[in-house]
Amino acid sequence: MYGSTDEGGSFYVKINTANIDSDSIFHAGDLNWWHWLGDTPENNADAKRMAWREFKELEGLSVDVAMFLWIIVSKSLWSGARLSFYAA
Q: What is the mean pLDDT of residues 16-23?
């Protein structure tokens, strides 16, 4: 189990088998860089800092499939996914 930038958590699953093509999955849950339109610059900067801290915990993991939540009213559609690849 990994961290979150909201409620809940995120998780990583690795299956050691030769019978499937993808053997590692990361599900972000509500772990994301939540950059809300209309929020204060301070809150958005804090959200980015929290996301960097959580994504650094994933450093070094090999991930075949990654799943991230998209919320249309947020500017963070790709922010968390992009940030996780930079952190890794």
A: 70
